[in-house]
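Give me structure tokens for this 575-residue protein.
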Amino acid sequence: MTLAGRRLDPLWLAAPGLVFLLGFLLAPVLQLLSVSLEDADTGGFSLAAYQRAFGVPVYVRVITNTFVMALQTMACCLVLGYPLAYWLARLPKRRQRLVSLLVLLPFWTSALVKNFAWLVLLGRNGAVSGVLDWLGIAEPGSLLFNRGAVIFAMTHSMLPLAVVAMLSVMGQIDNRLVLAAGTLGATRVEAFWRVFFQLSMPGVASAGLLVFIGALGYFITPALLGSPRETMMGQVIILQIQTMDNWIFASALAAMLIGAALLSCLLFDRLFGLSAIAGGSGVQRSPRSPVRRFGLWLLARLGSGFSRLAEGLARLLGGHRFGWLLPAYGIAVIAVLVLPILALFPMAFTSSEFLSFPPPGFSLRWFAEYFASPVWVAATLRSFGIGAATAVVTLCIATLAGFGLARSGSRLTGAVFLLFLLPMIVPSIVVAVALFYLFAQLGLVATDLGIMIGHTVHAIPIAFVILLATLKGYDWRLDQAAATLGANRLRSFLRVAMPLTKGGLVAAGIFAFLSSFEELTVALFIGGGLRSTLPKQLWDDVVLQVSPTLVAASVVVVVVVTALFLLAEALRPKD
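Here you go.
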């Protein structure tokens, strides 16, 4: 067959995105890793930075803190999130979608805003502290600046992600399999453990992986709610770069985070297959696999044990069942998720000079100060501008890539798919530091363009997954029908494919905008202290001075995020 007769595989459409990620993700990260192996005096090869990290007790404690607290957060998210995801999976589709909005909204609200709200609520004069003191559970002022507060707030931030990851797998489980187990003599509890729980394990593992990797790079929560004993590697990286200008040691710490993330992904891939993160079928393990056989034995024992426990409690309580418990639990967890967001609104209208909840009086003073401040207004307008640019660039890259992968039959689609998910795997603090090092050489530090590029790297996986799901659900036979009526490929795309997939396109663009609008880590580094976005300005005020104007600005963030989030969800393709 001649070259002219060959049809080019659509996978080439992913080329712009691949070039972008190679230039602004892989290359900077590899460059950063090479810096960690340099000698500070000669510039030659050296492992001194790693020897320092593992040889100085302070840094050993920081590294241990980071991994232990990430594991604790992961465990809390899985234990607390599984019952919520299971309850959501059992709801009718329409109600499930509505309740899921309340779970997802806190996830899209800036972690800085939520952590600041908890700082007030858990403080000596906060509502939560007051209630617990009244109940005799905790003394005022004892809830903050300790490991418990940090783990609680990190779990609060990451729990929606864990729930969504588990729900995506639970929603694909055929409930008839559970019913069939019942017809074969299994109790409801045994059917859950031996059938449903087993089939949901890829979702549990996906949730654990995403939460663990995300928690590794945390610095906002331990900085606001923790003490020096809870210092994590992200905080040390920022300190080493912004205060001490020690790139070699900061790069070594970043390399450790990357190594931990990649090792976690490798382990996950061996057990389940990385495609399971996006709801794929993952790895099909042999029934004779020792891991699978042990897992089935353990689930059988758990099923039998919990079944006897449930029957014993039912007899003890005169046949009373606990069907109400799961909905009550789900409602309680969702209430905790939305509490800090709702608490911001009355605090923003306080008449006091100091923050407290509930506020002593009503006033619009702080909103007036926010809108009259050139600094706050400039930061807000910059966030809107960079967010819009990020959405446009991300949408162009993700649309082409999604179209290419949806139509491609190449064996390279798996590798390309994983590369587009890579920004979710590399901790965000590492991406920000790597880009900062690269942009310092290119003159892009303290520029809107530099911030936009960094935000686009973060936004690509979100938009890509949405668009790929949208395009895979599109009936491509409609294009063939348009072609038989004389339409060329461009006209077919514009007149047929675009109208039918516009909901997914708009939703992907909105989520890309939201990813940029609430992003702090990139803005903290690439902004260079001269280009402040709204989250960066919020961070500066939290660190330097806490005033009700800060809460008014936080409410603006919440209103924008909520409005666009609800619009995106309304436009997303319905199941």
